[in-house]
Amino acid sequence: MVIFPTARVIYPWRLTLAPRSMVGRNVMIYNLGHITLERGANVSQNVHLCAGTHDFNRWDMPLVTAPIVIGENAWIGADVFVGPGVRIGELTVVGARSVVVRDLPPRKICVGQPCRAIKDRIDPQ
């Protein structure tokens, strides 16, 4: 596993990194809930993984946390935001500057705000 020195991890004990996972430059891991990068998961520069939010339907706005899982050999492109409770499937590619607020299926190319699958990903050679 590789973590660039400019990456920021709020709570290291709430982060699980499998072998061959990578966290790029200036990544923000705001892990109020647990965040897992499975084997070979690649998180590119300036990505924000945010595993917490607030219940805005209540006046006291309590903290709400939910885990994030980045699947095996998934690639999260530059400047992507991933919200709480999201699971990104194995081999999925998330295009740069996407906003991921729902689970993404495995083996897809996904882009947009909000992020959605646009085509299948073929197996890498």
Provide an overview of this structure.
The structure is a single chain. The protein is mainly beta and 125 residues long. The protein has a single domain (2-118), classed as 3 Solenoid (UDP N-Acetylglucosamine Acyltransferase, domain 1). The chain is 0% helix and 40% strand. It contains no helices and 18 strands. It has strands spanning 2-3, 8-9, 15-17, 22-23, 28-30, 35-37, 42-43, 48-50, 52-54, 63-65, 68-70, 75-76, 81-82, 87-88, 93-94, 99-100, 108-112, 115-120. The strands form 4 sheets. Strands 1-4-7-12-15-17-18 form a 7-stranded mixed sheet, with no helix packed on it. It has a 5-stranded parallel sheet with strand order 2-5-8-13-16, with no helix packed on it. The radius of gyration is 14 Å and the shape is globular.
Brief synopsis:
The protein has 125 residues and is mainly beta. It has strands at 2-3, 8-9, 15-17, 22-23, 28-30, 35-37, 42-43, 48-50, 52-54, 63-65, 68-70, 75-76, 81-82, 87-88, 93-94, 99-100, 108-112, 115-120. The protein has a 7-stranded mixed beta sheet with strand order 1-4-7-12-15-17-18, with no helix packed on it. A 5-stranded parallel beta sheet has the order 2-5-8-13-16, with no helix packed on it.
